[in-house]
Specification:
single chain, mainly beta, three-stranded antiparallel beta sheet, two-stranded antiparallel sheet, 0% helix, elongated
Length: 71
């Protein structure tokens, strides 16, 4: 099993910011998704929070979706 232990949102200071230097960009910690083996993570359309999706869960259960909006 694979669990995320943290999720961080990095924000480019400018549109032209070099993605190779993202570790220098301002960032915030977000709540981690409570999904086993989360395979994808993407920002919500309003830019505040994220969605995560998993593969099939334990015992062949269907995939899971977790939405984490801003507080």
């Amino acid at each position: 099993m694979q669990f995320y232990d943290q999720v961080r949102q990095y924000t480019a200071p400018q549109r032209s910011s070099d993605p190779a230097l993202f570790f220098r960009w301002p960032h915030v910690a977000l709540d981690d998704p409570e999904l086993i083996q989360a395979e994808g993570i993407a920002p919500l359309p309003d830019g505040c929070g994220f969605a995560a999706i998993s593969e099939a869960g334990l015992g062949g259960r269907v995939a899971g979706l977790s939405i984490a909006p801003c507080r």
